[in-house]
From TrEMBL:
This protein's UniProt keywords: Cell membrane, Membrane, Phosphate transport, Transmembrane, Transmembrane helix, Transport
Keyword Transmembrane: yes
Function per UniProt: Part of the binding-protein-dependent transport system for phosphate; probably responsible for the translocation of the substrate across the membrane.
The protein's name in its UniProt record: Phosphate transport system permease protein
Membrane topology: Multi-pass membrane protein
Residue stretches making up the ABC transmembrane type-1 domain: 87-314
PANTHER family xref list: PHOSPHATE TRANSPORT SYSTEM PERMEASE PROTEIN PST (PTHR30425), PHOSPHATE TRANSPORT SYSTEM PERMEASE PROTEIN PSTC (PTHR30425:SF1)
Organism: Isoptericola halotolerans
Pfam family name, one: BPD_transp_1
Length: 328
């Protein structure tokens, strides 16, 4: 028997079987991944279609019909006119929370990633992650029973001394049940999300970038400003948008703290001026029937569209900033 006619070795047959098995696993994993991606799209489309189907009666009904069946619905007002103050209150609460939380979260993330000792950074990281595990109803109780009485003197001081600023004008609440308190509580709630994502992004900064800045004589702050922050810009934006999405949809904490109202007011210290969509749905759903339920679902559809728009805008910003990242 010649060399060319010799039977294949056992190792060669085993390698072939292994490659064939790997190709089978690769195809299986590919279809599983594709199925997962399609599934999330199907679920999202199903939610959107359900909201649109259930909200259609309220969207097409007249103002008089809605006023007759929906509590607190003013006469001679369309659905868009009714939901407008709710949208305004939702966006106002989310923007206040974002303005308060983002600077603090970036500072905490930078301290954990570049300033604190390793043991202290691990403890702080655990504590920050623990804040995300606290239920929203606990935040609501804390905000209503503890934070609101503590902040009330400060809100009254702002109203007396800085009333020329539109946010602090009007009649300040003596109980603290105002949009300002809601903004502080929401800021605490979204703080761990923004901090955790920003911390992981800052830790991924290439060491060569930091060492190059130090070799050129940069201080610690200059390293952070010239190397860390430019590299993590897109990640910080993504973290802020995640926190914004949490603030937009928060329900129980807002419901337990705020004194509701329907107006386009910037007086964040006044009571009875604002309400959010999520808190409005939670408050009115148990007593609603018929067209009232359709109206609540229509408000939920509006919140769904707002959240979707926020996430799409965040993706666009991240994609636009990616080419200017410090990693490139």
């Amino acid at each position: 028997m010649s060399i060319t006619d010799s039977p294949p070795r056992a190792g060669t047959r085993t390698a072939r079987r292994r490659r064939s098995s790997d190709r089978g696993f690769n195809r299986g994993f590919r279809w599983i991944a594709v199925g997962a991606g399609v599934l999330i799209l199907v679920v999202l489309a199903a939610v959107a279609l359900f909201l649109l189907w259930q909200a259609w009666p309220a969207l097409t009904a007249g103002g008089d019909e809605l006023a007759a069946e929906v509590p607190r619905f003013p006469a001679d007002t369309s659905f868009l006119g009714y939901v407008g103050p709710l949208v305004f209150g939702t966006l106002l609460a989310a923007v206040l929370a974002l303005c308060l939380a983002v600077p603090v979260a970036i500072g905490i993330a930078l301290f954990i990633s570049h300033y604190s000792p390793r043991r202290l950074s691990q403890v702080l990281g655990y504590l920050v992650d623990l804040l995300a595990a606290i239920p929203s109803v606990v935040y609501g109780l804390w905000g209503f029973l503890v934070l609101a009485p503590v902040l009330t003197p400060f809100w009254l001081w702002l109203n007396e001394n800085l009333s020329w600023i539109p946010l602090y004008g009007g009649q300040a609440s003596t109980t603290g049940r105002a949009m300002a308190t809601v903004g502080v509580v929401l800021a605490v709630m979204i703080l761990p999300i923004i901090t955790a994502v920003s911390r992981e992004v800052f830790l991924q900064t290439p060491k060569l970038h930091e060492e190059a800045a130090l070799a050129l004589g940069a201080t610690r702050w200059e390293v952070v400003r010239t190397a860390v922050l430019p590299f993590g810009r897109s990640g910080v934006i993504s973290a802020a948008m995640l926190g914004l999405g949490r603030a937009l949809g928060e329900t129980m904490a807002v419901l337990m703290i705020i004194s509701p109202g329907f107006s386009y007011s910037l007086d964040i210290l006044a009571a009875g001026q604002h309400q959010t969509i999520a808190a409005y749905i939670a408050a009115d759903f148990p007593e609603s029937t018929g067209l009232g339920i359709n109206t609540l679902i229509a408000a939920g559809l509006v919140l769904f569209v707002i959240t979707l728009a926020v996430n799409m805008t965040a993706r666009w910003i991240v994609a636009r900033r990616k080419e200017f990242s410090g990693a490139n």
